[in-house]
Specification:
heterodimer, A: 214 residues, mainly alpha, B: 10 residues, little secondary structure, rod-shaped
């Protein structure tokens, strides 16, 4: 495993720690999109089905279990925790799941490496992950009040895929058999979706202010 | 050997 990949994973993990920290310490999930959290949970469930039939490393297994458990944990807080659930922006978080889930499912059925149940589900998870942040970005645009932790959460989530791109470039040159065109295309789309956010995030950071969206 | 057989990323 190269340093880009490790840094990417740590950035991903850190973004989840931030969100749990925000919810736990402030007992609030204001500004967080439950739709995005549900989509990520669906991503992890469909991708990590391979926990049942393939083993790569202890590191991978532990990380997969952490991602699964934490995404269900976040959802539990937002849905059932007495105080946290009252802070959820239900009226603003109106993005419909099917707008993303259906096209990703159709695309996974058409463009995949192999037409098998596990492979199509895996491909679906790759496509869905690329766009799962959209409800969160829409919510951000609507509410405009972005607290520091939410801003940092989205920043590290975006940084994770950007670091993965560096990891893919590195592996492309060092491992001749490593060619994952589907993943690369989806990863580029995913990182691209953050471009706008990154721009405003860095601008606010440079000015020493809280994140402000136009 | 499928191109995507190495699913060693997260």
């Amino acid at each position: 495993m190269n340093l880009f990949r490790l840094a990417g994973d740590m950035s991903h993990l850190f973004s989840i720690v931030l969100i749990l920290l925000k919810i736990y310490t402030s007992k609030s999930c204001a500004g967080l999109s439950m739709k995005t959290q549900e989509l990520y949970t669906l991503v992890f469930v469909t991708r990590y089905l391979d926990l049942f039939y393939s083993y790569v490393s202890l590191y991978n297994t532990v990380m997969k279990l952490i991602f699964l458990a934490s995404s269900f944990g976040i959802l539990w807080y937002m849905r059932y925790h007495k105080q946290v659930k009252q802070t959820y922006d239900r009226e603003q978080d109106t993005f419909r799941h099917y707008i993303l889930v259906v096209p990703c499912a159709v695309l996974a059925l058409i463009v995949n490496n192999e037409l098998s149940v596990t492979e199509v589900l895996w491909t679906f998870s790759i496509y869905l992950e690329a766009v799962a942040i959209l409800p969160q970005l829409v919510l951000l645009q609507r509410t405009k009040n972005v607290d520091n932790l939410t801003g940092q959460y989205i920043f590290f989530l975006g940084a994770y895929r950007a670091l993965y791109i560096l990891n893919w470039i590195y592996r492309y040159w060092t491992e001749p058999k490593y060619r994952q065109y589907l993943v690369w295309a989806a990863g580029l789309v995913q990182t691209g979706l953050y471009a706008d956010f990154f721009y405003y995030y860095l601008k606010s950071w440079q000015a020493g202010e809280k994140l402000r969206l136009p | 050997d499928s191109l995507a057989s190495t699913k060693d990323e997260l």
